[in-house]
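Data availability (excerpt). All sequences and predicted token strings are deposited with the supplementary files. A representative entry, TGF-beta family profile domain-containing protein, is shown inline so that the format can be inspected without opening the archive.
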Amino acid sequence: MDTHPIYFVFRDQRLQFTGWVRYTNRALFPNPHGSTLNGQTLLEFPWSQDMGSTDSVKVKSAKLWFRLEYRPDVPPAARRTHHSHNVTLWLFKINFRTNPMRNTTFLSGKEFDEHATLASSLSLSLNNLGWISVDVTNTVREWYGSSGKHRLRFHIDCSGCGGLVSPVLFHDTRQANEWENPFLMVYTDPTVARRVRRRALDCSLAVRGQCCKQRFYIKFQDIGWDSWIIAPGGYYANYCRGDCGGVHRTPDTYLNFYTQAIEDYRKAKHSSIFQPCCAPVKFSSMSLIYFTDDGNIIKRDLPKMVIDECGCP
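Structure token line:
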């Protein structure tokens, strides 16, 4: 269904009833008490109704993040000897549905092949241990598109790691930050979530020279921030442009009485001392998922990162 903005004119301002709120990045966390396979806890992601459907959500990409570290029993001397070696790990999607009364399963040989599908594989140097990501786009697309929304289960096979390293799956969940555990980052095309009413004149709709908000996208790769930011890949920061000097304003358009008094004085005295500027009048925050200096991953909401409205304060 096509959607179009609806505009209302109130005095000399344009009110826009639109602004589809869109969710383009989502982090999913596995159940730390889920099923186990061959002695290893599976990365088990439950489905929730608010994740959308294939009719409204298109998965662009998906990555599974987890830590790969030296095993505690590997001595420092062995770590120095093997630091330049390569290891291989495989990621399997597990297709069986465990009995809820028995969450431990052992599969080997042909049985494992019947219930496991290779989702991805990765070879890396032991110089690059720590947080790693594995592309699981196709698997997550199939999961979103499945008719029955079952749990998505991953099994990490590190048998090609030579007994040197192993994936770090779960810490003590009573104490650890959830961002220390594995997570699934899903990047989707925008979906309709809700409507918001906002007063914001977009420059694509403004009269030439009028104060307005210009949409402006910053791609983190262009400024070198992609090396430490996991998500998003960029965002609309926006900026303000236009002239405020010739705008006829009614009293209700001023942010406060001080601004109105200064503007009325400027007009009455034809003063060039005070020149109103088109400037941000409303900001919003944005969420970042990023690496800290010590290699941990955290999520933080940064205030005043997005210009929502511009005006002549």
